[in-house]
Amino acid sequence: MRRTTADLCNLSSDELKALVRPGERPTLKTIARISGLAVATVSRALGDAPDISSDTKELVRTIAQAIGYVPNRAGVRLRTGRTNVITLVVPAEGEVINNASKLTNSIALELRGTQFHLNVLPWFPDEDSLRPIKYIVETRSADAVIFNMTEPEDPRVDYLLKRNFPFATHGRTIWCDRHAYYDYDNTAFMHVALKRLAARGRKNVYAMLPPSSQNYSQDMLRGLEQAAPNLGLTFRVAQNVDSDQSSDDIRHWIKRRLSISPDIDAIICSSSKAAMAAIVAVEQRGRRLGQDIDVFSKEVVPILKLFREDILVEFEDVGTAGSFLAKAVMRQLLQPSQPLMQKLEVPADD
Question: Where in the sequence of the chain do the CATH 3.40.50.2300 domains occur?
């Protein structure tokens, strides 16, 4: 008996799986037979073709997932020249608290149920950041790439733009009008942080920023320089340490600075790791968090208030960033005539 689309949609995963013939390896033809659609329609639905209805795409993806269909990558590459792989290139970090895992998870969730698969390729701080990008392009091991920790004149962006290779960045560059990106407005973050600290009567701020070569570090410094004078605040920026260094290094240098400059009554950090190290240094110096000194930090995982209730925090939504970046590269691959996706997340100004 031929089943209607409504009938198929009401079947459980186990019932759909039972429609696979004994000994049959699930293929496009299997999905076509079960769905009653043409093989070409099934293929286009899995490829998220714009002329296929959303109901048909959902039906095909549901059947594919239920029966365990896995595309033949070699066949796909021979037919289309594509791998159906999107690679996320992230720094290999030893610290537990970082945004890489959240970014990876959100990208993977967005790609779930599409024709695309996610690979994660790490690079190490002591090697050329361009190396993994060149490898992907030269070997054609992926159709698009996503990466973070951008610099203003990022060599990876320059390389990819010159080769017209699809990509999106978590962070902006001086060429951001020409590429897809999702970024957090770190200049605005610093305005918000200083405004809240000034309202609490703070006067002397110590800032623990990311490495100065990175774009968002320069945005933060710009925010400090713009907002501090207008709020009657003075500020110092850590010179011998940055937020990418180890927790012990951060704690050591903040403790040292508090000894040299006891007038510091606020510390701004760009990461949860740096903030936790700063709090330990503050307490080791006998200072009282939330009373004679404040620590203000960004976080991508809601953890800092569990560590110390009196810390001041601003949340950066890396989950939304990952989802956006996945959509941005898929649009370039599936709808290349459409505008590039670009988004700047602005923190709320209380």
Answer: 79-184+319-345, 186-315
Instruction: Decide if 167 contacts 160 (C-beta within 8 A).
Output: yes
Question: Which CATH number does the domain 186-315 belong to among 3.30.420.10, 3.40.50.2300, 3.40.50.1580, 3.30.470.20?
Answer: 3.40.50.2300
Q: Tokens representing 126?
A: 């002591």
d(CA 30, CA 14): 15
**Residue-wise pLDDT tens for the chain (350 aa)?**
556 666 677 778 888 888 888 888 888 888 888 888 898 888 888 877 888 888 888 888 888 888 888 766 545 554 556 788 999 999 876 454 567 888 999 999 999 888 899 999 988 877 899 999 999 999 889 999 999 999 999 999 999 999 999 999 999 999 999 999 999 999 999 999 999 999 999 999 999 999 999 999 999 999 999 999 999 999 999 998 999 899 999 999 999 999 999 999 999 999 999 999 999 999 999 999 999 999 999 998 889 999 999 999 999 999 999 999 999 999 999 999 999 999 999 998 76
Q: Measuring CA to CA, which residue among 223, 224, 216, 226 is closest to residue 172?
A: 216
pTM comes to 0.78
| Torsion sign over Cα 286, 288, 292, 295 | positive
